[in-house]
């Protein structure tokens, strides 16, 4: 029997990617100050997702809630089905979460390579027990991490400075060291807080290319806080806009840039 060929309409949309991060109704207060009010955000696997908004909108505070530094008073945050608000912060890396900070936090008294190697243990109890009872396998693991760190430094154009102190590097390279440190944890979701802050035009273009390669080559989903709208437009699949701790709008970069509140924030006047 010959089956008829299945016809697919020319304008058929691919099925949506699965949700990786689901932030629902998150509210955060410090005393009388409402920093986040019922914020919702969905990041799908494989996306580069932008998070934008004016200064003080609550972008870093939301990152701090996702990464366990702040504990919101209401709402839920799920990563690939795991309830992050029920998880102690030191276990979040083991669940596939890594981040960089708005202002790089690097130890100037040691080398770039040692900085990258710091903070990559995922604090899984079984691994720690294994290190005590099987020192040889612990050494092999240490060696593997070191090799991986050096491969990532090469991938990011930093291998020539692996032995230098981060303080001797230009600002753009210091920011990349932090990014490599986060990548070494093999995250599913990478939170980048203003990675283009303080970078000149050509450095922003290189950074955009690197973030895209990280997504494509390593399968890492990226949530990116940025004021640089050129970077947001060129690399994001979706963008979420926050202002004064509240959801404003979401959509593609082109869509959100047509929203009056975004025009007001970034161009100084509504249409
Ligand atoms: N630990 C804290 N204690 C009190 N207030 C805080 C704390 N952390 C953040 N805030 C306040 O929350 C608000 C949002 O700050 P946040 O740093 O999240 O903004 P942002 O969107 O990241 O801004 P920017 O673009 O300038 O980095 C600000 O009013 C800030 O002062
Ligand atoms: Mg911030």
Written account of the structure:
This protein has 271 residues and is an alpha/beta fold. The protein has 2 domains: 18-96 and 187-271, Rossmann fold, CATH 3.40.50.300; 107-186, no CATH class. It is built from 9 helices and 10 strands. The strands form 2 sheets. A 6-stranded mixed β-sheet has the order 6-7-8-3-9-10, sandwiched between helices. A 4-stranded antiparallel β-sheet has the order 2-1-4-5, with helices on one face. Helix 6 links the parallel strand 7 and strand 8. The longest helix is centred in the middle third of the chain and has 21 residues, at 135-155. The termini are far apart.
Report the mean per-residue pLDDT as an integer.
Answer: 89
* Intertermini distance: 62 Å
CATH 4th-level superfamily of the largest domain? P-loop containing nucleotide triphosphate hydrolases
Number of helices: 9
Cα shape: globular
- In the CATH hierarchy, what is the architecture of the largest domain at level 2? 3-Layer(aba) Sandwich
User: What are the low-pLDDT stretches, counting only 5+ consecutive residues below 50?
Assistant: 121-126
- What's the CATH class label of the largest domain? Alpha Beta
Question: How many domains make up the coordinates?
Answer: 2
CATH topology of the largest domain: Rossmann fold
In terms of structural class, how would the helical and strand content be classed? Answer: alpha/beta
Radius of gyration: 20 Å
**Fraction in helix:** 25-40%
